[in-house]
Amino acid sequence: MSRRFYDIDAAGEVLCTYTEHGAREQLQTEKTKVPLGKAILYAFLPAGFPHTVTEDYLSYQLYDSLQAFASSITSLLANRAVLEGLGVGDSSSSPTGALILKITGDTISRIATILFAHRMGRAIEPECKFYRFLADIFNDSAQFLDLLTPALPYFPKLSVIVSAGVLRSLCGVAANASKASLSAHFALTGNLAELNAKEASQETVVSLLGMLAGSLVVRLVEDKQVVWFLMILLAGVHLTMNYRAVRSVKMRSLNRQRATIVFREWLDHGTVLTPDQVAKRESILCKSRGNLASKSGDYHGFCDFGTYGELVSWNPRGYHRYDFETSTYFMAIWHRGGTFYMKIALKEGVKTPLAAWFDAVNHAYHFDSALKDGLQSHFENEMPLGYVSDEQKEQLFAALAAVDWDLETNALETRLPVRVRSYIP
């Protein structure tokens, strides 16, 4: 009697077949033949693909590769302009002057890297799609500044080189940090390191192809007008592909915009949206501040998290102020005309501000009714208008978890989380 055994990978594909005829000495081994094209493809994809990554991984990588190809060509055109601006090929140019330009630009760009990482480092992960796209806007802006360098005198040229260097440093921080967050989203089986390694392989091939195509372009194209036309065209392709790449990502964490979309849909229709549905609705460049609105749309405003001191001491002229307190947070609302502003100070022990953000969305949702007699009427019988009980919130959050939302990751606070400790002597 014979038995068969199979070596399979994470995707369930058979790697090798073993046939045992009564004794182990009679074991027959047959390795599965992999077509050459498939073997080459596997060299650039995570092991076990597609079962070891999220379903949006492939679409993102395809668009990301196309934008990297376009960027490689534009970078060569921009670099040629920089070299011309630094005096390469011009016998009258001073090597010392070119070196000073280079050192000054590098110095200021490195300082900008430190400052930007310090100021915006925490905000990048919750808004990784926004910063991934913003990084390429910075990069393309720097390349267009590079094109100006050959035609400028020394000091204007210095300011342009410095500005381009600062933009590239901002691009580097935003791109690297947002890519790390996106990679963590794509990795399903603890394969983050391998996924990053394979992405580096993909970028190497795409950049090489882009450099080869770009080398042909810079050799054939010398006319300045044609160069500008190509730069505009390729930058348009670059940003379009990058936009499509980040649009295809279906993040599972609830940042301010996604949480607002989900909660508003639940308040409007009692429906719980999935990450796929929210990805089709969210904006990439706008609404990252947590834009809130009333049910009718007549009142608009924002909500933010802050310290207790910020909440108590800020009193802008012309605004009516209202204060609320629950067991988990303090909230202040400033209102004037059709606009409002909310600030939340979370109490000590609160791990995630998701419930507080829901209350902020709910407050804004019922502004039309609450403002008829002043915002104090927001409370009736010691409960706010449109009150949602803790049991209803728990049911909502359970429903969110059931459709694969990640409720543990705090993607709502874009600064260092601060909590309020109260003490009564």
Features:
alpha+beta; Growth Hormone, Chain: A; five-stranded mixed beta sheet; three-stranded antiparallel beta sheet; 10 strands
Task: List the strand order in the largest sheet.
Answer: 4-5-8-7-6
Q: What class, by secondary structure content?
A: alpha+beta
Distance between the termini: 83 Å
Q: Which oligomeric form is depicted? A: single chain
Following the backbone from N to C, one meets helices and strands in this order, namely EEEHHHHHHHHHEEHEEEHHEEH
Helix content: 40-55%
Instruction: Count up the helices.
Output: 13
- In percent, how much strand structure appears in the residues? 5-15%
Q: Describe the main β-sheet briefly.
A: 5 strands, mixed
Short note summarizing the structure:
By secondary structure, this protein is an alpha+beta fold. The chain has three domains: 2-33, no CATH class; 57-247, Growth Hormone, Chain: A (Up-down Bundle), CATH 1.20.1250; 256-402, no CATH class. The protein has 13 helices and ten strands.
